[in-house]
Every structure is written in C-alpha cells, then in structure tokens.
From TrEMBL:
The chain crosses the membrane at residues 50-69. This is Uncharacterized protein. Keywords: Membrane, Signal, Transmembrane, Transmembrane helix. Residues 1-40 form the signal peptide.
Amino acid sequence: MQISTSPKRKSFRLLALVGTLGVVTVSAGALLASVSPAQAANFASQPDTQVAVFMVPLTLLVLVLLFEVGRFVWRGTLPAQVPSRASRPPSLSGKPPAA
C-alpha cells in the first residue's frame, strides 16, 4: 500500500517554514538594531503601542471580512438552500406515531 501525505499537511509545512523564517528575520533585525529587552518593554508600555497592538489585527479582520462579503456578492449566486423537513405534530404518548 502506498502512503501519501494530504495537501493540507504540505501547506502546513510551507506555513511553518515561512513563520520560522519570519521569526528569525525579526530577531536578527532586533539584534542588529541593538534593541534591548528594557527598551522593548518601555516601548510596549506606551498607550499608543497598546492601542496599535489591539487595533491593527482588528482592522485587518474587518477588512478581510469585507473582502469576503464583497467576493460573495460579486459572484452573484447564493448557495442552494436545503428544503426544510415537513414537521409532524408531537406525539402526546411519547411513542412515535404508527404508520
């Protein structure tokens, strides 16, 4: 039997590699810029930085949501709705109705 990996697994490897390279790049940049932990803590304690750390991801989330809604509307078709089941009146005895 041949064992193959799923496409999701391969995309996760690529994502992990890109994330690791990003962390290494940012760390190297901080070392080259001579940023000390004390300087970073001082910068993180400023209110503007705290607001930015909260608002930037929130703004990106809203923009992605608007993009997805726009893409859905631009396509113009709604997905087919599944017809609802015919409801039966509930049985008073607790037993299913006889057919």
